[in-house]
Queue: 2 jobs
Job 1
Amino acid sequence: MTVLKTEMRLCPCCMEKHDVQTVTVPESNTFKGIVIEYTAEYSFCDKADELYADEEQISSNDISMKNAYREKAGLLTTDQISAIRSRYGISQSDLCLLLGWGGKTITRYESHQVQDIAHDTILRKLDADPEWFLELLKSAQSSIAPASYAKYLETGTALFEQDHDLYLKSAIMAKYARFLHNPEATGGRELSLDHVEEMIRYYANSDQVTKLFLVKLLKMLWYGDALSYKRYGHSISGLVYRALPMGAVPIAYESIIDLSTVHYEEIEMGDGTGYRFLPSEKKEYPHLTSEDTEILNAVIQRFGKAPKNEIVEAMHHEDAYTETAPHDIIQFKYAKTLSLL
Ligand SMILES: [Zn+2]
């Protein structure tokens, strides 16, 4: 028995006023066939030498017992369930709506009723999968108040982007793992997606860069890295480029342009969809050094207003392109003869 506090009050046990202790006691109980140990809270009357639990304590002891059971049975505890719900900022009743459960189900799970395994699995999936939350939300839209819907949509989307970014980043890093000890491919830099994101943002935010479509952006990234290598013996980003018919293209570029900090619009062109990269509200570049931005400015000065064909044509004249077999990795050593100074 551990004493939490002692206070002078009416003792519920002997009905006299005296110093009453609030205590915790280790208890053991069998619930759903499992023996459970947990800590219960009581008032202790030293005159009657008796433990006494008021309504509130009976209730919280019951939750403690059931949480101990949940832990032992591998189920989410009440705190974990409400944490999942608060992550999405959604009310108990709206979450029930989304999941097609009775209106009080979550309220009960966050207190005395132990959830079954099927519902437990659904709550865990919800926690791990913001995309699924968004799907459920959209199909329940007509049943949810518009202001709440907008709020849930915003929170869910932010979580989805965060998750999606983590997923994309680890997929990109996995594709770069085999170049870790290949400075000729990386330009002597380990891939830094922070640098990549800032380079893209720097180009897209410049008012000296027009019509920044995909081919032009990828070429400008290569020119930035190659010029850095020429000047300082290392690239800026650590991207690894392949020689494709239109020039240098970084490995995993499809995932890179999908990162949440990279903004583009899709434009219907004659022969498919074009990706046009857009300025961002973020104008800070904490990872780029002043040498880096000088390099990017030189690339912008040369190619910022050039049409795509001009930059592709320039690339086709670089040793990096003529000396590299189609689809091979472009070696940074060729940057030494780069046309930019
Ligand atoms: Zn008493």
Job 2
Amino acid sequence: MTRIVPGEVVADWRAAAAHGVRHLYIHVPFCHRRCSYCDFNTYANMEDRMAAYVDALCAEVRSFADAASCPPVSEPAGDALTRATLRPTVFLGGGTPSMLPEPLMEQVLAAANTVVPLRGAEVTVECNPGTVLGRDYLRALRAMGVNRLSMGVQSLHDPTLRVLGRIHTAAEARASYNDARAAGFDRINLDFMFGLPGQTAAQWDATLREIVTWGADHFALYSLILEARTPLYAQVTSGRVSVPDDDATAIMYELAMERFAAAGYVQYEISNWALSIAPEPAIPIPHHACHHNLAYWLNADYLAAGAGAHGHLYPRRYADVPGIDDYIGCVRAGETPVAEVTELSPRDLAAETMFMGLRLNLGVGAAHFRERCGVAMDVVFGAELAELAAAGLIEYDERGARLTPRGRMLGNQVFSRFV
Ligand code: SF4
């Protein structure tokens, strides 16, 4: 990939490239406190910049609006999952978007509405159970057009939550979830992690047994990744904190697959489970799948705004200025807040379409690949597909390519063959 780091302001090509784009990511980089494992672009104790940040953010979002004419949703033709089958989406991630007071949240959503009409879209707000401001706040979010919450719970074990530096207890997470349900949210994703410091299989099993009874329609489960330069990484590498080994973590993952399947959840991606409803959809993706994340896995184009946000408008990918003050200063000065642009080749597009799509249980559909890349999958990757199929890591037929159970355990090895 060619990397371009412009040393001077470049003309904002994004508005022109935004035509027809149906997915918008908005980054809210504020947190009350940084969790010990977190390496996201987020900042604590900068709440005094919130209003100025939201002004800048809305200006950036509105700059997309003229050209971004989000096409109406059409009924999917046939039974193939392609970009055209996705609902338009707006996703407020962070950071902790639920720290935004109501008027600022309203301002952000009004700006988003100029790019992707909220009516008919999947509109998700990430929230931390320690910051959800009660049922009135949640009802206000619904009234503003938010129809999905994504709540980072991570653990129901208070000592583990403390090691992770989370600002909430297990009881507060349960209460926040119940508040969200009482406020009328019927689409709620819950994030949990496994392979956590001191975590045992029995503890994880107790968590799984409890959470499948909550009635959430979506779960995302991630194994802990120790990111360099985080406090937790230093604690683990110095031996002060221990984490389960790879085998123990793999057992936890298998336990999750077992418990969720038994509770009626459909695993549709390596880390994601959702409820389906009868009758089964023609496209084998559960009804409650997250369409915003599906856009990433289908390697769709998406706009992104906010400090450190990453957007994808093929043939380019871009990243905004990461610092809050730099971002605000840039927008106030009338400059485009893009810090980095990566030019993508057709080969990059094909590789990303493969390794992102293989995360889905459905795999990479032949029709989707052809629609996205303009060429058949085996024309580009015939040798790689044959080699991985012979190794028992993927299944490959006229419908497309998908990971085998063994391939799922060795996903990174498979993905690297396409890069
Ligand atoms: S709440 Fe989320 S974004 Fe904020 S520090 Fe914790 S993990 Fe990172």
